Amino acid sequence: MPKSEISDKIIIFSNLNATKSNSFCWQGDANNNSQIAEQLSLISVEKLDFRGKISAQGKNKWLLTGKLGATATQKCVVTLEAIKCRVDETIKRIYVPTEEIPSVEKDDGRDIKLELDDNLEPLTKSLDLSLIAQEILALSLPDYPRSNNTDYVSVSLGYDEKTNERDKQQNPFAILSTLKKN
Question: Which of 75, 86, 102, 170 has the fewest CB atoms in 10 Å of its CB?
């Protein structure tokens, strides 16, 4: 199948060739990267490369497949030092009209269990590649990044006489039983 090349950040579905595979390559510039870093509360986004293709799937469905590669710098949740994270994600999304996306409904007070496809997205007039890249980056980065040289706090879950005695002293029921004895 022949390909058509797209170089814009905004893709308008009506401008795509439905008979060809429409490939795209979007790389974030300094302005886009700083906006994404600000939106995601990151120190910085240094490299952002989003490549893939969009092809028609029938009359009113579009399949987007691609790869996102990014390098971002986050703060360690313990030491607040800068940590570089590399993200390489494969993306698959199917854009369908909103009415074709199944919804969870109630029937006679019972929940209907549906196998929802995580790849389905509502079909709009256009597609912003930077927003897709931002979403994938947000979902792929660690929620609680830690540097390799972070000291971890240890918690003892076993029996410890000092801890057990201190807990008994502060336990409100232990205080109440002491008051009852007096």
Answer: 170
DSSP state of 12: E
Do residues 129 and 51 lie in contact, with contact meaning Cβ atoms separated by under 8 Å?
no
* CB distance 121 to 94 below 8 Å: yes
Q: What's the rounded Cα separation, in Å, for the pair 79 and 181? A: 49
Give the Cα separation of 24 and 174 in Å (integer).
68
The Cα–Cα gap between 36 and 30 comes to: 10
The owner of tokens 């313990």 is 78
Both tokens assigned to 179: 């008051």
Strand 82-96 relative to strand 3-6, pairing = unpaired
pLDDT in tens, 47-106: 899 999 999 888 889 999 999 999 999 998 888 888 999 999 999 998 888 777 666 554
Q: Residue 134 — pLDDT band, cuts 50, 70, 90?
A: very high
Q: How far apart are CA 74 and CA 140, in angstroms?
A: 13
Amino acid identity, position 9: K
Residue 134 makes CB contacts below 8 A (sequence gap 6+) with 36, 39, 40
38: enclosing H helix or E strand: helix 30-39
Domain ranges of the chain: 3-181
